TrEMBL record:
InterPro entries: AhpD-like, CMD-like. Residues 44-124 form the Carboxymuconolactone decarboxylase-like domain. Pfam families: CMD. It comes from Nocardioides aromaticivorans. This is Alkylhydroperoxidase family enzyme.
Length: 199
């Protein structure tokens, strides 16, 4: 159980029962973060709806999108999103051992050139102000096409919304990966500040 800046409240009502049933089926329990977001149902529903829509898009490879989201989570310091995406990597058929290296992608040797370009782009787009360059975008546009690059960018934007919101609210990892017997996710690199501050 984490200590959030806004206390969680009981999830009630018919919609609440459906949400708890879905969460319990997916995670084996109801995440505390749902109780935090329950204070503002329109905000919770909007975030969930957009996240579900993103999952249905298929112009960009699922692996690349997951690595991009995990890169943003690692950069911003959102342990909840990092742990959740690592947990979901099993359902998405990703290489779990490879996914564990995303927080250390600059030093890791397991990623393809395209995967590294995607993670570099995710970091650059998450800086304030963004540090994306024409030279950075050109190979991605060639590899993914306009629709694929737009989809990837939308995923990165949504990742920034969720990661920054979670960090601001004090929502931290709830141990999804360990709950299903997966090894702990790789630690964020100590020299994360070397790539720039996301603030």
């Amino acid at each position: 159980m984490t200590t959030t800046r806004i206390p969680a409240v009981p999830i009630t009502g018919l919609y609440g029962a459906l949400v708890k049933k879905f969460a319990d089926k997916m995670f084996g329990r109801v995440p505390e973060s749902l109780g935090v977001m329950w204070h503002h149902l329109p905000a919770l529903k909007a975030s969930m709806a957009y996240g579900q829509k993103l999952q249905k898009w298929d112009e960009c490879d699922e692996t690349l999108k997951t690595y991009a989201h995990m890169t943003v989570a690692s950069l911003i310091g959102c342990s909840w999103c990092l742990d959740f995406n690592y947990f979901m990597s099993r359902d998405k058929g990703l290489d779990e051992e490879k996914a564990r290296q995303v927080p250390n992608w600059r030093a890791a040797t397991v990623f393809s050139p395209l995967e590294r370009q995607v993670m570099e782009y995710a970091e650059a787009a998450s800086m304030t102000p963004p540090e994306v360059t024409d030279e950075m975008v050109a190979p991605l546009l060639a590899a993914l096409g306009p629709a694929g690059l737009l989809e990837l960018t939308s995923v990165i934007g949504f990742a920034n919304l969720t990661t920054r919101s979670n960090v601001a609210l004090g929502i931290e990892s709830e141990g999804f990966a360990s709950a299903c017997g997966m090894k702990p996710l790789a630690e964020r690199p100590a020299d994360r500040a070397a790539v720039g501050s996301p603030a």
